[in-house]
């Protein structure tokens, strides 16, 4: 019988395979970053920003609620089974995006995508945390999110290129078919379940930042603890929500905003790609940095760097393409600082016996940010113009960083 050991070095083969799987998971989101808002305005002639951004709202809400139950499903049915289920749900998505005859079918595709992402991405997060144990959580989350969001950015760039040469549909979405097939086959045949690694950590650990628990609490208890009762987990959850509010806003706003400023489709593809690429690659460095410097400094300053990105985009002192590129670099850098530190901080603060559920609650609030950001952008775009969505997101991000600065205590030190 194979001996169960914790650590990145000890489990590098399975860890590497999970990184590859998460690249496929991230690529599925990247399919939509550049092209789908333009499909709504140019192919289906939708005039309302709220309606155009409705696909992001549908995706965000469904993914958030799926995140919430993913940990419970993982504990009941194993991580691997939930990962495979996520891929099965996602199989129709690229076909629907490529050939949908109406906008309602695009919305249905995003409901399926939200469920698929909530299951599959959640499991890659949980499985990597299970494998590495406490010492390398920041590094593990940095590598996981780097793979996922790097694939988001590269796919956004590729779909923009394909759309500029072949049209908005169907060619840009064919690559999604490849992602789903590779991801499903890897998940079925080469990925191993990791729940026994989490059980081993439960036996080893004495306490966490939230204290020692001798029983596994129910989901409602974990929801309250993660959402508002524990000041660290509250600070983390609200920061995650606002971080993804920025992403949800940019997802819908940037293609329409920069196209209206005269930026071409390939230029929009670069703007949309550089944000998640910097976000993804940056986490290779910021993940280990969170292990070295602690979680809180990266979260606070990461939020402030994102604010600077909003300012660069809104000042219009450069030409639109340059402003979009530089602003997106700053947004990506700030998000790279925040993302692995937030996930590692939740893992610090939650006992292994309910960590999967707590991560699910955190990711529920984080991914509700997609929907809230898209709704905010749609309303402000309809009434005041799309640039106001950028201003509002910047102000909210500043306030969120201040909340973390004031209320959160460092979690890493308490795990040593």
What does this structure look like?
The protein is mostly helical. The protein has 17 helices and no strands. Helix 12 (231-260) runs parallel beside helix 16 (355-383), helix 13 packs parallel to helix 15 and helix 15 packs antiparallel against helix 16. The mean pLDDT is 89.
Short structural description:
This protein is mostly helical and 416 residues long. Helix content is 81%, strand content 0%. The protein has helices spanning 12-33, 36-43, 49-52, 54-77, 79-90, 93-99, 103-132, 137-166, 174-189, 195-204, 219-229, 231-260, 265-293, 295-315, 320-349, 355-383, 386-407.
Keywords:
416 residues, mainly alpha, Growth Hormone, Chain: A, 17 helices, 0% strand, globular
Task: Outline the secondary-structure elements.
Elements: H1 12-33, H2 36-43, H3 49-52, H4 54-77, H5 79-90, H6 93-99, H7 103-132, H8 137-166, H9 174-189, H10 195-204, H11 219-229, H12 231-260, H13 265-293, H14 295-315, H15 320-349, H16 355-383, H17 386-407
Helix pairs in contact: 1-7, 1-8, 1-9, 4-5, 4-7, 4-16, 5-7, 5-9, 6-7, 6-9, 7-8, 7-10, 8-13, 8-15, 11-12, 11-16, 12-13, 12-15, 12-16, 12-17, 13-14, 13-15, 14-15, 14-17, 15-16, 16-17
């Amino acid at each position: 019988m194979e001996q169960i050991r914790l650590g990145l070095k000890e489990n590098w083969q399975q860890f590497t395979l999970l990184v590859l799987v998460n690249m496929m998971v991230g690529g599925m989101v990247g399919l939509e970053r550049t092209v789908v808002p333009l499909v709504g305005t140019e192919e289906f002639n939708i005039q309302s920003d709220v309606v155009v951004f409705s696909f992001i709202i549908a995706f965000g809400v469904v993914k958030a609620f799926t995140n919430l139950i993913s940990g419970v499903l993982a504990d009941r049915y194993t991580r691997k089974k939930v990962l495979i289920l996520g891929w099965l749900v996602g199989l129709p998505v690229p076909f629907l995006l490529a050939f949908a005859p109406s906008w309602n079918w695009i919305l249905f595709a995003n409901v399926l995508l939200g469920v698929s992402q909530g299951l599959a991405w959640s499991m890659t997060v949980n499985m990597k945390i299970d494998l590495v144990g406490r010492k390398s959580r920041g590094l593990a989350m940095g590598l996981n999110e780097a793979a996922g969001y790097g694939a988001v950015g590269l796919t956004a760039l590729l779909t923009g290129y394909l759309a500029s040469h072949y049209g908005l549909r169907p060619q840009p979405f064919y690559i999604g078919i490849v992602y789903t097939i590779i991801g499903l086959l890897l998940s079925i045949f080469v990925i191993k379940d990791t729940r026994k690694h989490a059980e081993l950590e439960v036996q080893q650990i004495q306490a966490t930042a939230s204290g020692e628990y001798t029983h596994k609490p129910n989901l409602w208890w974990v929801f309250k603890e993660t959402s508002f009762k524990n000041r660290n987990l509250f600070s983390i959850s609200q920061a995650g929500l606002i971080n993804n509010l920025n992403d949800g806003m940019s997802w819908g706003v940037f293609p329409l905003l920069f196209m209206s400023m005269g930026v071409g489709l390939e230029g929009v593809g670069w703007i949309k790609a550089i944000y998640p690429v910097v976000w993804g690659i940056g986490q290779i460095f910021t993940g280990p940095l969170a292990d070295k410097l602690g979680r809180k400094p990266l979260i606070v300053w990461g939020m402030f760097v994102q604010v600077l990105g909003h300012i660069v985009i809104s000042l219009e002192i450069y030409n639109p393409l340059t402003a979009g590129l530089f602003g997106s670099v700053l947004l990506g850098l700030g998000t790279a600082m925040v993302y692995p530190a937030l996930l590692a901080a939740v893992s610090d603060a939650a006992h292994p016996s309910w960590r999967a559920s707590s991560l699910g609650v955190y990711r529920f609030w984080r991914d509700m940010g997609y929907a809230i950001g898209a709704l905010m952008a749609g309303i402000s775009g309809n009434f005041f113009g799309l640039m106001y969505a950028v201003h509002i997101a910047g102000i909210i991000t500043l306030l969120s960083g201040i909340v973390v600065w004031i209320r959160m205590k460092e979690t890493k030190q308490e795990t040593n």
